[in-house]
Write a structure and sequence with these properties.
Blueprint lengths: L1 E4 L4 E4 L6 H7 L7 E2 L6 E7 L3 E8 L2 E9 L5 H18 L18 E6 L8 H24 L1
Length: 150
């Protein structure tokens, strides 16, 4: 799975790196979302589409990140258009939220996970931000596992 953070341009390819214990903690949160085990007051909210889904990580009701996971090629353009719309609305209002040196581009293959950092991320501790990035990937893997079994 490709994971792209639009604000920074960071791109990583994660293949089979999620351990079973982490997947077991994240899996019950899909498809309805809810409080993240062992991480109160964090929670995940989930939206659904065909071949894709969106999710946001929130702390005490404040969204920190929003992500779109695409696993079907036919849904990639729709998912990317939605991500771009959100990204440009946010960065037009808060330009400090972008550190990317060029405009983000949609990954060429699925599955991919696109993430946007929201203004509330600025008040999170660095160790929490690292954990959030890891959780996004783990949760995306749990979603992919669920969808493969459906």
């Amino acid at each position: 799975m490709i994971h792209l953070t639009l604000n920074t341009g960071d791109l990583a390819d994660y293949q089979g790196q999620t351990d079973a214990e982490a997947l077991d903690l994240a899996a019950p949160l899909y498809p309805k979302g809810g409080p993240i085990p062992t991480r109160e007051p964090y929670r995940v909210s989930v939206g659904h589409g065909n071949g894709l889904c969106s999710f946001s990580i929130e702390r005490a009701g404040d969204p920190i990140t929003v992500s779109i996971l695409v696993w079907e090629a036919e849904s990639a353009a729709e998912g990317w258009a939605t991500l771009e719309e959100i990204y440009y609305k946010i960065t037009d209002k808060v330009p400090q939220l972008t550190a990317a040196t060029q405009a983000p581009e949609m990954p060429a293959t699925v599955p991919w996970l696109g993430t946007i950092l929201l203004p509330a991320m600025a008040v999170q501790r660095p160790e929490e931000l690292r954990w959030i990035g890891t959780f996004e990937r783990v949760f995306a893997d749990a979603i992919l596992n669920h969808e493969r079994q459906s």
